[in-house]
Amino acid sequence: MTDAPLLSVRDLRVTFPTRQGSFQAVRGVSFDLGRERLGVVGESGSGKSMTGRAILGLVRPPGQVTATSMTLEGQSILNLPDRQMRQIRGGRISMVMQDPKFSLNPVMTVGQQIIEAYRLHAKAPRDAARQKALEMLEAVQIRDPERVMNAYPHEVSGGMGQRIMIAMMLAPDPRILIADEPTSALDVSVRTEVLNIMDRLVRDRGMGLIFVSHDLNLVAQFCDRVLIMYAGRIVETLAARDLHKARHPYTQGLLSSLPRLEAPVDRLPVLQRQDSWRDGETLMPHADTDLPGGL
Amino acid sequence: MLNVKDLNVWFGQPPERVDAVKGAEFSVRQGESFGLVGESGSGKSTILRAIAGLIPTWSGDIAVDGKPLKADRRDRAFFKTVQMVFQDPYASLHPRHSVDAVLAETLRLQGMDNIDKRITKLLDDVGLGKGFRFRYPHQLSGGQRQRVAIARALAAEPRLLLLDEPTSALDVSVQAEILNLLADLRAEHGLTYVMVSHDLSVVGHMCDRLAVMQHGRIVEVMSVDALRRGAGEEDYTRHLIRASGGYQPA
C-alpha cells in the first residue's frame, strides 16, 4: 500500500440527540483504505455499520456526522450536498447490504434494476446498459443471465439475490465497495461462493473493500486487515493473519467466547467488559515496543 | 424420552403441497442433548414445530416419554413435559407485558401455586435476579430477553426443551453466556434438549449426537465426536462440515 489511500477518514463522529443528551454512536474513528480488503468487526451497537453509513452520507437527521476530514481520492466527501453525494454513492462508492430480500425492489425485474442503476451513473444508451447488465450477471456466475434478467427478486434464491446485488453495485465501476454483513443471511455453502465472486471482482478492478461483519473468523480468513470496534471506537487494528495474536482483551475475549469444533471446552469463557475499553488507546501492530509487556 | 418415526410434514394442498419433512426418524434418550443441523429449508425447525404442536399437518409417529402424540391436539400433560424456546427474543415476548406478567401468566396456566416464590426462583435460575422482575422487554438487552424466554419455558418444570436456534440472534459474547446457562440448567434439572442450529460449532459444543438434514430428509445421524473429526459418512455431511470451517479462497 505505497500509493495514496482511496479513502481517508479522520476523527469521524456520528451523534444522535436523545432526551438524555447527545449520544455518540461513532466516537472518533480514523483509518485509511487502500486497494485492500479491510474488515470492520464488532458486536451489535459497536458503530461498525454506522461508520459505513456515515461514509456514504446515509445518516439521516437528526443524526449528525462530523470529522476533521473524510476524503475519497483526495476529494472531501464530508457532508456534501445531497445532489453531489448521489453522484458519488453508487458511482464511486457502492454498498451491498445484508439481506437481498430487502435491498432489491420487489416490483421491478432484476434486469430493469441493474439497467436503471447503471444508467444513473454511466449515462449509457439502453442497449449498451442491457449488454452491461448481462455481462455483470455473467461475471457473478449466474448461468442463465437472460432468464434472470426477466425474473423478479422473489423468484431467485438468497445467494443468487446477493450475487445480483453485487452485479448491480459493481456495474458503474466504483472505487470502493462497502459490504455490510453481505453473507450473514446466506447458508454456509453459498457463502464461500458469494465471497469468492466478490473477492475476484474487487481484486480484478483494483478496488478497495470495506467488509463489515460480526464474524471474526470469517473476516480473518477473507480480509487483509481488520479493525475491531467497541462502543463506537476502534480498539485494535491488525493484519488479518495475526488475529490470533490480538492483544486487546476485547478482541481476545471475542475470539475465545466462540465455540470451536476442533477445540472443545466444558464452559465457554464469558467476556468481562471493562469501562477502560471505551476510551483506551487504539492498539496498532507496531505498538509492541511502545507498550512494554502489552496491555 | 423422544421417539420420532417415519415423520412427514407438509404444507398446503395438492397440487401446491410442499413436503417439508420426509420420513424422518430419530430418538433422543432421557438426559441427552440432540442437535438438528442443516441449511435453511432443510426442515430442521419444521420437525421441532411439529413436535411442539405448532403444525397440525403431519403423519408418522411422535412419542414423548413413550406416549404417542395425536396430530392436532396436545393435552396439558404434554406442555408440562415439553417446552420450547424460540430463535428471536425480540419477537417471542409480548412488548406490553412485564417479565412478571409473562411468568405469572405461564405459571397460572400450568396450575402452579406459590407463584410469587416461583417467579423469584425462575429469575434466579436464569441469572437475572429480582431487579428484572418488573421490567418490560424494551428495557432488556437481547441476551436478557432470551433469559426471560428460557425462564418462561422452565416455568412448567418440563423435562424436554425444544430449542430453535436459541442464540443465532445474539452477539457471540452473549451467545457464550446463554450456552453456558443452558448447559448449567441441563445439569441441574436433568433436562433433555433437542436443539436446532445452523451453526455446527454451537451444536458441537452443546450436544452429544446430531442429525444432519438436507431437503427435508435426515441424511445422517452421527456423534459429536465424529463431527469433530469431520468424519461424516455422507458426502453432504462432509461438505457441510467443510463449508462451516469458514472461507476458503477458490
Question: What is the topology?
Answer:
The complex is a heterodimer of chains A (295) and B (250).
Chain A: E1 7-18, E2 21-33, E3 37-41, H1 48-55, E4 64-66, E5 69-72, E6 75-76, H2 82-88, E7 93-96, H3 100-103, H4 110-122, H5 126-139, H6 145-149, H7 158-170, E8 176-180, H8 188-204, E9 208-213, H9 216-222, E10 225-230, E11 233-239, H10 249-256
Parallel strand pairs in A: 3-9, 3-10, 7-8, 8-9
Antiparallel strand pairs in A: 1-2, 1-4, 1-5, 5-6, 10-11
Helix pairs in contact in A: 4-5, 4-7, 5-7, 7-8
Chain B: E1 2-11, E2 18-28, E3 33-38, H1 44-52, E4 58-64, E5 67-68, H2 76-81, E6 82-85, H3 99-109, H4 115-125, H5 142-154, E7 160-164, H6 172-189, E8 192-197, H7 200-206, E9 209-214, E10 217-223, H8 224-229, H9 235-244
Which descriptors apply to this entry?
heterodimer; A: 295 residues; alpha/beta; Rossmann fold; five-stranded antiparallel β-sheet; 10 helices; disordered C terminus; B: 250 residues; four-stranded antiparallel β-sheet; globular
Give an overview in words.
The complex is a heterodimer of chains A (295) and B (250). Chain A has 295 residues and is α/β, with parallel strands linked by helices. Chain A has a single domain, classed as Rossmann fold, CATH 3.40.50.300. Chain A is built from ten helices and eleven strands. In chain A, the strands form two sheets. Chain A has a six-stranded mixed sheet with strand order 7-8-9-3-10-11, sandwiched between helices. In chain A, strands 1, 2, 4, 5 and 6 form a five-stranded antiparallel sheet that branches. In chain A, strand 5 and strand 6 (75-76) form a beta hairpin. In chain A, helix 5 (126-139) packs across helix 7 (158-170). Chain A is globular, with a radius of gyration of 20 Å. Mean pLDDT of chain A is 87; it is low at 287-295. Chain B has 250 residues and is α/β, with parallel strands linked by helices. Chain B has one domain (2-244): Rossmann fold, CATH 3.40.50. Chain B is built from nine helices and ten strands. Chain B has helices spanning 44-52, 76-81, 99-109, 115-125, 142-154, 172-189, 200-206, 224-229, 235-244; strands spanning 2-11, 18-28, 33-38, 58-64, 67-68, 82-85, 160-164, 192-197, 209-214, 217-223. In chain B, the strands form two sheets. Chain B has a six-stranded mixed sheet with strand order 6-7-8-3-9-10, with helices on both faces. A four-stranded antiparallel sheet of chain B has the order 2-1-4-5, with helices on one face. In chain B, helix 3 (99-109) crosses helix 4 (115-125) and helix 5 (142-154) runs parallel beside helix 6 (172-189). Chain B is globular. Chain B starts with a strand and ends in a 6-residue tail after the last helix. The model of chain B has no long low-confidence stretch (mean pLDDT 91). The A-B interface holds A 43-44, 158, 187-189, 191-192, 195-196, 199-200, 214, 216-218, 221-222, 253-254, 257-262, 264-265, 267-271 and B 39-40, 142, 171-173, 175-177, 179-180, 183, 198, 200-202, 204-205, 227-228, 239-241, 243-250.
